Known about the structure:
five-stranded antiparallel β-sheet
Amino acid sequence: KQAYIIVITSAIPFLLNMLTRTILPLFGFINIPGMGQIFSLVMLWGVYHAIVRYQFMGIPTSLITSKLFNELSGLTFLVNASGIIIKANNQSYHLLNYVENELVNIPANLILNDRQIIGIIENCQSIKEPINFEEVHIMSKSGDLIPFNISMTPLYDSRTQLFLGLLIIGQDIRTTKILESEITKHKLTYEKLKNSESLFRTIIEMIPFSIILTNRNDHKVL
C-alpha cells in the first residue's frame, strides 16, 4: 500500500506536467501557465499519507501482532461472531495434531466438546467479560479428548464498541491430571500400608505368647 500510494501520486504530477508542457502545445494550446509546483503537491500528499497512515519503512503492527499470536504457548484460537475459527497459533496445531492452516475456517464447536462453551460461542456477541472453565475436553484430529483449562475473552473495538471476535486460550492439563492420579495412588498405598502396620501391631499385641522381632542383618531386637 505504501508503494502504490507513492508511485501513483508521483506519476500523477509527471503525467500532468507532460500533458501541459508537451501534448497540449501540439494541439495549439500554447499559453498554458506552469503548474508543476501545484502538481507536485499531489506527490507530497502521497508521501505524507504513506508515512502517517501506513508507517512508511516501519514494521506494520498487524505483522507484529500476528507473530506474537503464533508464539503464544498453549492453545489459542480467535473465533468470529459466527463461531468460525479465523486464526490459531502454532501450538494449537501441535497439541491437536492438525497441519498448518487446517483449523482455519472451521466451526469452533466441532473441536470444543462442551455444551456450555458451545452455547457461549453461539452467543459470543453478548459476552462482556472474560469467562474461565476448568477441565474442558477438546477433540484432537484423531478423536482423542484432551483436558484443558479454558479462558474466553471477548474483543471489542475501543471506539465503535463493535464485536471483533472471541479469544480462546487453553492450558493443557494432561500432565497435571497424571500427577494428580499418581498422588492419589500414593495416598491409597500409604493408607494401605498404614492400616497393614496397625493391623500387624494389633495382632502382635493380642497373641497370648511372647514374640521377639529381630533385625535380619545385625540381629538387633526391634
